[in-house]
Structures are given as C-alpha cells and as structure tokens.
Amino acid sequence: MVLALVLSVVLLNVGCAKTAPVRLPVVFSDHMVVQRGMDVPVWGWSEPGAHVTVQMGSAKAVTTATDEGAFLVCLPPQEAGGPHTITVTSENTIWVKDVLVGDVWICSGQSNMAMAVNRVRDAEKEIARANFPDIRLFTVKRTPATKPKDDVEGSWVACSPETVPGFSAVGYFFGRALDEHLKVPIGLVNTSWGGTPSEAWTSPGTIAKTDAFDPIVKRWQEQVVTYAERK
Range of 46's domain? Predict the structure, then answer.
C-alpha cells in the first residue's frame, strides 16, 4: 500500500512537471489599455497542443497552442471604456484586471522623446496636476539584444503625480491632449532610447539586404568576435 502510494505521488509529480503553465508577455498585465475599434490580439505561451481560452466580457476566443507552445487569438473590436478583465485559461488561469479600451500609442525616438517630465519647465507644477487615471503608462526597460525579443520588462501604471515624473515628457503631454479632446482612455508605451539610430532598431535580416549597410555589418561581426577578449 505504501509503495503504491509513493509511486502514485511520483507519477503525479512527473506529470505536473511536464505541463507548462499558460503565460503572457508583460504588456498583458493589470492596468493595460487595448486599442478600440479593431480586433484585440492576445498572445502568449502554453503547453504545446494545449487548448487556450481567452475572454473579455462577452467576447470569447478558443485556440490550440502550436508545437512550439505559442498561441494567438483575436477578440472582436471593443468600444472605448472599461474597466474589464481579460481571462486566459489553459492548464492554469491568468486574470488581467483593470483593462481599459481606448487608443494606444507607441512613444519612440531618441533623447527628445526620452526626456522625462521631471526635466520640463515648471516640472513641479505639471507633476502635481498629473492625475489622469484613464491615461496608462508603460515604459519598456532598455535592454540591448542581438535578436528580436518576444517579451520585454516593464509594467502598466495609471498616470499620477507618483508615476509620471520619469515618463517621457513628449509622450505625456501628447497623451494628456488626446485625453482632454477625445474623452477616451489613452495607453502610452515608451520605447525611446537616446542616441540610438534607426539601424539599431532594424532587424539583421533587413540590414543584410541593403548594400549600404555592409560596412556596419562587417564592423558588428568583428566586434562580436572580439567581445570576449575586450570584456
């Protein structure tokens, strides 16, 4: 009896160890904004072949994870508003709460976009009045990579005097103007990085197809080869 019980526990643990829980990229997290008036894509990873159900309000979609464990569904277009909860269920369940539907903008550029609110004229005054709960901010952590990444580091926060000081000033004032005129939730994703040329944001495959970039590719390859020695 004891042996049978031990074997049952071992087999149960082995079975659980093989099951990959469903997970989402961090951009799908509490306080996020999804784009109004168009399909809402939701993607992530799960056990290969696992059934995945995604629901937001009455909208629901079901799919099966690929052999690589990736999944993608599209919920039908939503009207501006909220808050909503996005529920993703497979072997486990994830709840993404306080989701708003509105307009989502990418704030990209160099130092002019990266300059923070706490550096503008009358910064103290502007920060004190930055209480806009329907404006949501997401700053992508700056992490160099040699290949495109399928996830980033960051988190969504509601715009407030506590969260806005380090956010892109151009992005914030742009979002505030939109909020005042459109009266819909605004999501701002700050991907700015001062001093980075467009080539740094271009895929290696695209650069390799352009002869003008050959010297850059050659120099990069040389830098990679000698990196360990220079580190």
Answer: 22-190
Compute the mean pLDDT over every residue in the chain, rounded to the nearest whole number: 91
28-73: pLDDT as tens digits: 999 999 999 999 999 999 999 999 999 999 999 999 999 999 999 9
Total domains in the chain come to 2
Please give the Cα distance from 79 to 109 (Å, whole number).
30
Q: Are 152 and 27 in contact (CB under 8 A)?
A: yes
Among left, alpha and beta (phi > 0; psi -120 to 50; other), residue 124 is alpha
In this prediction, residue 15 carries a pLDDT of: 46
**Alpha-carbon gap, residue 29 to 10, rounded angstroms:** 35
Domain co-membership, 32 together with 65: yes
Residue 3, domain member (yes or no):
no
CA distance 119 to 88: 40
Give this prediction's pTM.
0.86
> Token digits for 55?
């629901």
Q: Are 107 and 221 part of one and the same domain?
A: no
206 and 122 belong to one structural domain: no
Block residue for tokens 């329907």: 134
